[in-house]
Fold this protein.
Amino acid sequence: MTTEVQAPANTAVFASGVTRTFGNREVLRGLNISIAPGEFAALLGRSGTGKSTLLRILGGLDRDYGGEVLVPQRRAVVFQEPRLLPWQRVLPNVALGLAPTGPNDRGRLRARSISALSEVGLASHARAWPVTLSGGEAQRVALARALVREPQLMLLDEPFGALDALTRARMHGLLRDLCARHRPAVLLVTHDVDEAIVLADRVLVLADGAITVDLPVRLDRPRDRSHVGFTALRTRLLDELGTSGGLCPDCPLVTTRLS
């Protein structure tokens, strides 16, 4: 039986016994997960283990699952691709889906959208077309579009995977600042072990359809990749993921990604 109701006040996400099957393939097998309000959790796992499937379920984009899922009403999803409408300028893209509820609401929503753009450093791009944006700028617009909804839960599906190493590092700093300011619960799906450790309060590993590892990250911020604690946690996660612990050949030297 599938149930989706609002999470209790002390829990942003609570999922119990979640199953999801595609044809004869069972991707999620009785998965359990909880995330507290304001907590940043990162989810690691090899390709095809069901990370994005879980994220889509929590975001209300996939309802063909079994088990119980309790989530906040206000949720926002940021994908790897910015998914901006090319025939709309930046500001309407940020406000996409926001519906005025009264005669004076349109101006308020416009002000909220401009404020969100300002938070990601793109207020001057409000009238720009998406085609004129760099990859990092487009993803910042996607973050603004998520923030303008004032989400209690933000779901991030490899949002920086297509960015170069320098832009990716800058986006990490921006995301940390935004989350510290707005305090949503966050679930970040990533293949990048270092990214998970840099950003998250907890790192989870999904394997065989269930959460097999749940580790707190007890390191001071900003996090130093050369710190012994960072290195130990990286090694532990890579061991859990069944990798050799080396960098994959096409990855930047500042990151550790799964094959």
About this structure: The radius of gyration is 19 Å. Residues 219 and 229 are 7 Å apart (CA to CA).
